[in-house]
Write a structure and sequence with these properties.
89% of the residues lie in helices and 0% in strands. It is built from 3 helices and no strands. The chain has helices spanning 5-59, 62-142, 155-173. The longest helix is centred in the middle third of the chain and has 81 residues, at 62-142. The radius of gyration is 37 Å and the shape is rod-shaped.
Length: 174
Amino acid sequence: MAVSRALRRLLHIRDLQEEQSRLALESALGELHSLEDAMAATFERGRRGRRLVDASAQNGQLADRLAGLEETRSASRHAEALEPRIDAMGEEVRELRQEFLSRRVERRQAETLIRETEAREAVEDGRRGQQTLDNWFSSRMHSGEADAESPAPTVVEFVTQATVASELAAEKDK
């Protein structure tokens, strides 16, 4: 029983599905990192605003103080807007990671099924070859080809006959 085309097609489909899941996960991770970078930039913007307020308190510049307060307030509002988006994207990344892992398991199951089928086929081919070889040797013994005076077949003759026998068996099975 050869590995069917349907199994190979299933493996190909599973491979494509895993690849699509991986790409979706990478895309979502990229977006999450972008949002996290934006949050870090927002925190830095708030720090710069606070430093501006501190500097203006020392030098008495009212415009710098107002600009610093506005930067701090703006950074705070931006962070409040980013938090829910980061949380939602984190949840989406978790779901996509779970989907990717399940697709990987499905692909590996298909690969395992194909490997096991191929291994069984190899064992069966070996058994058929051995059976053919045994039959050939038995028929040779019974037909009188091997009498007590004829030398035992060499390893090369034995392997050659086994190869021929297994090829004949393979042709017969087709």
